[in-house]
Design a protein that fits this description.
The chain has three domains: about 120 residues, no CATH class; about 90 residues, no CATH class; about 50 residues, no CATH class. About 40% of the residues lie in helices and about 20% in strands. The longest helix is centred in the N-terminal third of the chain and has 41 residues. The strands form three sheets. It has a five-stranded antiparallel sheet. A four-stranded antiparallel sheet has the order 7-8-9-10. Strands 6-11 form a two-stranded antiparallel sheet. It contains eight helices and eleven strands. It is of the alpha+beta class and about 300 residues long. About 15% of the residues are buried.
């Protein structure tokens, strides 16, 4: 081999080395970006998430974890009651894109994914960024059951059907077109049109999720046709109790003293008004309302 050929071979080898380094750096950036996107997806539903479990062979998200432990698993019963399918689909698209750069053990561990000894083929991925702080004393939401007419059911309601709580995925009335969603020949389209597609708005159709038959990657559903005037039980989240804005005041004075101070303030307002124009319009209206209230009590 001539010296010129040797020089060219050396140059090509150097270029190949540079290309390999650039490829590895680009792959690292892709894996890093994927972890950031996964953090955004999971923390919409689990604000304190710190880590996820991934199965590279299938490109599947199978677990979400916080400092307190596992928060979600694809193997739980009805997992999509906690992590919606659209979010899971988005996570799977991200994993499919990043794992196109390599899904073997060497590649994913080089990107910082940690193999789980007890889980064959599973890896932990640490989520970048700071998770939301867990509230010191988080108030749990409370729910109640209301009875409404079927015609007032809306998407995402939880309704009682045949003794089970079912999530309402879709609602159709006589003005809806199920073919736009399922197609003309779909069995759901035929079921809905058979009863609901009349001129008289007598029935509505509900597409209900079947949690017991659904999987984390597939929602099983069925159509139920119900008379609009039938009564249905539905879950409703109760409004949080309003903050006691007088708690600090009542901690230092008695309620009657507060009432006396309010009366004295309204009497002073009636006598002197606001000569320096320091009160806001809402404060003036409040004083006038209280003044009228106390006056009406005195006149009784």
């Amino acid at each position: 081999m001539s010296s010129n050929e040797t020089s060219q071979t050396g140059q090509l080898a150097a270029e190949l080395d540079d290309a390999c380094v650039a490829t590895a750096q680009a792959r690292d950036l892709v894996f890093k970006a994927a972890a950031e996107v996964l953090a955004g997806i999971t923390r919409k539903h689990f604000p304190t998430a710190t880590m996820v479990t991934v199965e590279p062979s299938d490109g599947a998200l199978v677990g979400i974890h916080t400092d307190a432990g596992r928060a979600w698993s694809a193997y739980d019963h009805a997992p999509n009651s906690v992590l919606p399918l659209p979010a899971l689909d988005e996570a799977h698209r991200v994993l499919a894109a990043v794992l196109a750069f390599g899904r073997d053990h060497a590649t994913v561990t080089a990107a910082g994914w940690e193999p789980i000894p007890s889980g064959a083929g599973l890896y932990h991925v640490t989520l970048p960024g700071d998770p939301a702080e867990r509230p010191a004393a988080e108030q749990r939401p409370t729910w109640s059951v209301e009875t409404i007419r079927a015609v007032d059911v809306v998407d995402n309601d939880e309704v009682m059907i045949d003794g089970r709580w079912r999530e309402v995925l879709d609602v159709w009335d006589d003005e809806s077109d199920p073919a736009a969603q399922f197609g003309e020949d779909h069995e759901f389209t035929q079921q809905i049109r058979a009863k609901v597609n009349w001129l008289s708005p007598t029935y509505i159709a509900l597409r209900l999720a079947d949690d017991e038959k659904s999987r984390f990657d597939e929602v099983v559903s069925e159509i139920r046709v119900i008379r609009c005037r039938d009564l249905i039980q539905v879950q409703r989240m109760n409004a949080p109790a309003p903050a006691d804005v007088l708690a600090d005041v009542l901690a230092v004075v008695e309620p009657l003293d507060v009432r006396g101070a309010l009366r004295a303030g309204t009497e002073l307002w009636a006598e002197t008004g606001d000569p320096q124009d320091v009160l806001s319009e809402s404060q003036r209206e409040t004083l006038s309302t209280l003044r009228a209230h106390f006056t009406s009590i005195d006149d009784q």
